[in-house]
Specification:
By secondary structure, this protein is α+β, with helices and mostly antiparallel strands. It has a single domain, classed as 2-Layer Sandwich (Pseudouridine synthase).
Length: 225
């Protein structure tokens, strides 16, 4: 399994390129996770420290590749959490979908509920008890109906499996996402969804920080005919 790559790191935080197939937090069953990897990294870097702070102000699904923000102090976590709560963090994704959406660009607004037993998200067009609003903006960059459609997505709310579930509800599942209806399998624990851009402000200096990944490189395996 691929290991995370450190894109940026200082005393307060780290920005990682998380590979698909790796969980963010420990699951209690000993499966590899970013949390374990980060702890080992800090233990090697600061062997004299007795404790290490590792926290995640946001998450990425196990099957999703991309940019992941890690807080390394409690103060940094508090400041970053506030940015997410105030929706001042910009999160951009790229996705390859099997069927083009009805409109080339637009906003998907639904209602979302996490099914704990099935470990899936349930989507509704209308508000229901136990459901929360979920919203994303999208634009079609490339569309080849015979092969795929490429979307750039701005996530406006951060619900469980949100992008995957909303696209599947619109009958345009992410390629490789068999859990949400894709009939194209491209390998275990990997789908054509990637967190490719992350913009936030540094929790100490308040300096804007922008990180980007190359979606073409990430999706190279999916784009081969």
């Amino acid at each position: 399994m691929k290991q995370p790559e450190i894109i940026f790191e200082d005393y307060y935080l780290a920005v990682l390129h998380k590979p698909a197939g790796l969980m963010v937090e420990d699951d209690g069953f000993g499966n590899p996770s970013v949390q374990q990897w980060m702890l080992q990294h800090l233990q090697k870097k600061f062997p004299d420290h007795k404790t290490y702070f590792i926290a995640f102000p946001h998450r990425l699904d196990r099957v999703t590749e991309g940019l992941l923000l890690v807080a390394k102090t409690k103060a940094a976590l508090t400041a970053l959490n506030k940015q997410f709560e105030n929706k001042t963090v910009r999160k951009i994704y790229h996705a390859l979908i099997q069927q083009p959406l009805r409109h080339a660009s637009g906003t998907l607004r639904h209602y979302h509920k996490k099914d704990v037993k099935l470990k899936k998200a349930i989507i509704s067009l209308k508000p229901k008890e136990g459901f929360s609003p979920c919203e994303l903006k999208y634009e079609t960059i490339v569309s080849d109906k015979a092969i795929y459609s490429l979307l750039i997505i701005e996530l406006l709310t951060g619900r469980y499996h949100q992008i995957r579930a909303q696209l599947a509800f619109e009958k345009s599942p992410v390629i490789g996402d068999v859990a949400y209806g894709s009939d194209i399998a491209k390998g275990k624990n990997r789908i054509a969804l990637a967190a490719t851009e992350l913009l936030f402000h540094h929790p100490k200096s308040n300096e804007p920080m922008l990180f980007e990944l190359d979606w073409q490189k990430i999706f190279s395996g999916f784009l081969r005919k």
